[in-house]
Amino acid sequence: MEADVKLDCFGLLCPMPIIETANKVKEIRIGQILEVASTDEGLKTDMPAWCKVTGQEFLGVSEKDGEYFAYLRKIK
């Protein structure tokens, strides 16, 4: 998936990837796609839940060699 903005959260543990995501979403424009890269496995469940609560569109998460990549679209 092609992201407009990337956020590096490697080495950060819960809840920091979500906190960093919340801060980054404030900076991007509506319609842009954000990729959040993390080594925290909790991203797989935390990101969809955060998107649901905040009204952002969760686009999916992938894993490669212990690295997780979550995608969301800012819709409000």
How would you summarize the topology of this molecule?
Layout: E1 5-9, H1 16-27, E2 33-38, H2 43-54, E3 57-64, E4 67-73
Parallel strand pairs: 1-2
Antiparallel strand pairs: 2-4, 3-4
Can you offer a commentary on this structure?
With 76 residues, the protein is an alpha+beta fold. It is 32% helix and 34% strand. It contains two helices and four strands. It has helices at 16-27, 43-54, and strands at residues 5-9, 33-38, 57-64, 67-73. The chain has a four-stranded mixed beta sheet, with helices on one face. The longest helix is centred in the N-terminal third of the chain and has 12 residues, at 16-27. The chain starts with a strand and ends with a strand. The model has no long low-confidence stretch (mean pLDDT 97).
Summarize the structure in short:
With 76 residues, this protein is an alpha+beta fold. Helices cover 32% and strands 34% of the residues.
Query: Treating each run of at least 4 consecutive H or I residues as one helix, how many helices?
Result: 2
Runs in which pLDDT lies below 50 for 5 or more consecutive residues are none
Order of helices and strands: EHEHEE
Radius of gyration: 11 Å
Portion of residues within helices: 25-40%
Spatial order of strands in the largest sheet: 1-2-4-3
